[in-house]
Structure formats: C-alpha cells, structure tokens
Amino acid sequence: MRKFKVGIIGCGNIFPMHAASIVEREDAELVAVCDIKKDRAEAKATQYHCNAYVSVDTMFEKEQLDVIHICLPHHLHAEVAIEAAQRGVNILTEKPMAIRYQDAEAMVNTAKQKAVALGVIFQNRYNPGSQLIKSMLESGELGRIQAGKLSVTWDRSDAYYQQSDWKGTWDKEGGGVIIDQAIHTMDLMRWFINSDLKYIDASISNRAHEWIEVEDAAEGVIAYQNGVVTAFHAINYYSYDAPVEIELACENGLAKLFADKATVTLDDGRTFIADHNPLESFTYDSGVKGYWGVSHVKQINNFYDALQGKATLDISGEEALVTQKMINGIYQSGKEKRRITF
Ligand SMILES: NC(=O)c1ccc[n+]([C@@H]2O[C@H](COP(=O)([O-])OP(=O)(O)OC[C@H]3O[C@@H](n4cnc5c(N)ncnc54)[C@H](O)[C@@H]3O)[C@@H](O)[C@H]2O)c1
User: Probe ligand 1: pick from 9, 14, 120, 130, max atoms within 8 Å of CB?
Assistant: First the structure.
C-alpha cells in the first residue's frame, strides 16, 4: 500500500474536516500545513505533529508532497492547484474550483497534462438523502425528471462579512450567496439532472447588505440539454440558515430534499425516506461530535481510494467544471441582464 505525504494549505474554518479525515487513513500522513497567518499554521502544526509553513512555494520546495488539500480563499484555488499540478502533486480543492471558468478549465487541463488527480469538494453529494434521490433516478424508478426547483434562504450577516478579509468581494470570493452558499444545493440539483447546460436566465442583486460588493440574492431559470427546466431562488439575508429545499417533479413521483432529508413519493403509493445516520458522527477539534463533517470524510476517503486505484474518483475536476460553468453562467446572465445560451 502506497503511503501519501499530504499538505493542507489554509488553516481556517474548513481545515478540521480535512485534517481529521487525513489522520484517520492509514495510507496518508499529514506532513505539512501552510497559512500566511503564522499563528494559525503553527497551532495546527503543533496539534497534528507536522511542519508549519507561511509560504506555499517554500512548502512545495521543502516537502516531497504527494497530495495537497486546498482550503484557501476562492481566488487562490486555481493558482495553487496549477502550481501543484506542475510539480506533480495530486490536488483536492474545496469548492468552488475557481472564480472564473477559464481558470477552472486550466486546472483540469494542467492536472491532465501532468497526470495528477484533481478532486473538488461537494460533500453534500454523499449525504444519505442525496444518495437516495440519485439512486432512484439512476435505477429509473422515478422516471424522467420533468421539472425542478430549489431554494436556499440562509443568514450571512454584516458581521460575518466584516470578520473576513476576503468574503463579500468580487475579486477574492468571486460572488456571494451563489458561489459560496447556494453552490452546494445547485450542484446537487445539477448532479441529479445529470445533463449539460442549455441556457441560464438569472438576476442577481444586493438587497440587504451594506458592507459587501457581491450579490446576496439571486433567482432564475436553468435549462439543461435533456429538456429539464429548473427554477432557483437564493438569499443570504434571512434570520437563520433555513433548511435548503429541492423538489424534482418526475414521471413516476416526487423527490424532495428538505435540509439533508430526502422523501421520495412514488405514484404507486410507496414512500422512501433517507436522512443522516445517527450512528455516524464527526469529532471536531473541540472534541464535540456532530453530523457536519461526516460527508467530508466520505468524499476524502473516495479521493484517497481513487489514488490507490481502488475506486473511481467521484467528483473530479471535469465533473465539477459543469457546476463551475453553471455558477459563472448565473453571474454572466445577472450582470449582462440577458439569457446565456451554451
Ligand atoms: N465544503 C464546505 O461545506 C465548506 C465550508 C466552509 C468553507 N468551505 C470552503 O473552504 C475554503 C476556505 O474557507 P474557510 O471558511 O476555511 O476560509 P478561512 O478564511 O477561514 O480560511 C482561509 C485560510 O487561508 C489562509 N490564506 C489566505 N491566503 C493564503 C496564502 N496565500 N497562503 C496560505 N494561506 C493563506 C488564511 O490566512 C486563512 O487562515 C473556501 O473555498 C470555502 O468556500 C467549504
């Protein structure tokens, strides 16, 4: 069994999901962490008994890494991924792949040229509810999808944005509620529909945040090459993170996702339900256990299993590129106030 030397770049909020997943694997060793904030890198290096770096280049030069996990602000994903690929290092990046579609495409092309793996985190695909809907679409039980709608109404306050030196900006976050929060639900819908895009007609606006440049509201239509037309609505000025909702109206019944719980009702009277397995939990840095994190572990396991040749990489760069195209299409349509046809 090959043992991979791993580095994590970015020691912020999402770092623990990656670190805890790596240390659980026998075939991966967390050897380095990197953050421009020295105190963060050093604290994580102490906790995980590895080396701390404040520069990505120095980390690449000093360590013989096989894999990096990118947990950085959005504008840095592409340049760090491309540098890693050029050095022959496999990459698992947090969502979104990049801010611009061309940069995401360059990530895929460089990874292909250098024969390294590129994975993109969309962990909600591994939730039992998402898996139930996907499997009932694939088995044909639900029949053809006729239409879909989704809604995300979350809370990202001015204080949330003021605490971050990159969120709320077009150049560093690349957008607001769409590229950062709703992207998960929009990726799920796209994965369920499993077709390339036909057109997007969307509007974006900032309605309730004084301190940010980017959109806090978006709505529109996304049409797919297989004929499915979907509606979406996303805001992040609600008073709390309300459960996200997806509904797919299908030939043989309805599939609904409410938060992470799926309910599939078939016209023949059968109902199928899937939600979190209470036996599965994730232990945070603080020692507290919770459900959030379980699906990260599953996706990260798939990435390493694929590197070992024991599995197919579920969410590759190519696969995530279609979601990137969708996100960028929403922004282009919203900014140019016109339908974007693919
Ligand atoms: N999958 C999910 O559900 C989920 C949840 C939260 C965040 N994320 C994603 O994870 C990524 C990171 O988000 P976060 O909330 O952890 O952000 P964060 O701001 O908490 O952490 C980012 C870290 O990167 C460091 N950094 C910035 N520039 C750097 C550089 N040049 N070199 C090294 N380090 C640098 C910062 O100092 C910071 O510690 C984003 O892509 C975000 O969308 C995903």
Answer: 14
Q: For residue 72, report the distance from its CA to the centre of ligand 1, in Å.
A: 4
CATH number of 124-275+317-341: 3.30.360.10
Question: pLDDT by residue (tens digit) across 330-341?
Answer: 999 999 999 999
- Quote the pLDDT of residue 285: 74
CB atoms within 10 A of CB 342: 14
CB 34 within 8 A of CB 56: yes
Q: Which atom of ligand 1 is nearest to the CA of 93?
A: 41
- Report residue 163's pLDDT band, with 50, 70 and 90 as the boundaries: very high
Dihedral sign from CA coordinates of 132, 135, 137, 142 = negative
Structural domain boundaries in the chain = 4-120, 124-275+317-341
Pick the residue whose CA is nearest to atom 31 on ligand 1: 36
* pLDDT, the chain, mean: 96
Instruction: Please provide the DSSP assignment of 63-76 as one string.
Output: S--SEEEE-S-GGG
What confidence tier does 290 reach under pLDDT thresholds 50, 70, 90? confident
Topology of the domain covering 4-120: Rossmann fold (3.40.50)
Q: Is the CB of 38 under 6 A from ligand 1?
A: no
Distance 147 CA to ligand 1 centre (A): 35
pLDDT band at 278 (very low <50, low <70, confident <90, very high): confident
Assess contact for 192 and 225: CB atoms under 8 A. Answer: no
Ligand 1 pocket test target in 35, 53, 160 with most atoms within 8 Å of CB:
35
